[in-house]
Amino acid sequence: MPRKKTEQSPSTLRWIPAKGLKRAYELRDAGETLGSIRWRGLFGSIAEAQYGDQRWTFKRGGFLRPRVTVREASSETDLAVLEFGWNASGVLTTSDGARYRWQRAGFWSRRFVFTDDQGLELIGFETAFGIVRRTGNVQVHGQARKMRDFGLLVTLGWYVLMLITDDESSAGAAVI
Predict the structure, then answer these.
(1) 98-133 in b/e burial notation, b at 16+ Cβ within 10 A?
(2) 25 near 158, Cβ under 8 Å?
(3) Nearest residue to 167 via CA among 100, 88, 82, 84
(4) Cα–Cα distance between 15 and 113 in angstroms, integer?
(5) ∠ CA 8-50-124 to the nearest 5 degrees?
(6) Mean pLDDT calculated for residue range 16-23
(7) Which pLDDT score, from 0 to 100, does residue 10 have?
(8) Mode of pairing for the β-strands spanning 134-140 and 121-129
(9) Backbone phi, then psi, for 143, in 5-degree steps?
(10) 25: how many CB neighbours lie within 10 A of its CB?
(11) What whole-number distance in Å separates Cα of residue 94 and Cα of residue 110?
(12) How far apart are alpha carbons 47 and 57 in whole angstroms?
């Protein structure tokens, strides 16, 4: 659970489905496209993400120790790894040693957040379900938008939230 919040009101960005593409989303701010995520296929976990001129690939792996690896789009070297623990929480560690916590905002919450090592909430994510596809709001707290890793965090957070939502949908469908 996040321990601290910033003093300023957060600004809000929005993830929306990309027109005409399946498993693709655009990050919008007042009509301007800031970034995108596009899965390479209808199934599987490999996705390509972009924010400004930065480009990455994300890939889920591991069974007993689930994780998501982040690579620059043209590289085979991990730039960052998000390792998961219990209740879909985890720690993102970048190759230069920066660390961010990924966690639910509350035990039953559908809202997830990235925090810094001191527990300060940086970016919050929440899904909304449309008629056919999901959309979501991203709350950006304080100076998070000026952080060097902002683009990575805002795209990776949506990617992970979509994986979690897909997993929950599959589990529910298996029960029915």
Answers:
(1) eebbbbbbeeeeebbbbbeeeeebbbbbbbeeeeee
(2) yes
(3) 88
(4) 15
(5) 30
(6) 86
(7) 73
(8) antiparallel
(9) -95, 15
(10) 26
(11) 25
(12) 6
Do strands 24-29 and 11-17 pair parallel, antiparallel, or not at all (unpaired)? antiparallel
DSSP states along the chain: ---B--SSPPEEEEEEEPTT-TTEEEEEETTEEEEEEEESSSSSS-EEEEETTEEEEEEEE-SSS-EEEEEETT-SSEEEEEEE-GGG-EEEEETTS-EEEEEESSTT-S-EEEE-TT-BEEEEEEEEE-SSSEEEEEEE-TTGGGSTTHHHHHHHHHHHHHHHHHHHHHHHHHH-
- Alpha-carbon gap, residue 17 to 147, rounded angstroms: 26
- How much is the average pLDDT of 149-153? 97
In tens, the pLDDT along 68-109 reads 999 998 888 999 999 998 778 999 999 999 999 999 988 778
Q: Give me the pLDDT at residue 122, please.
A: 96
Tokens of 77: 């070297």
Are 112 and 102 in contact by the 8 Å Cβ rule? The answer is yes
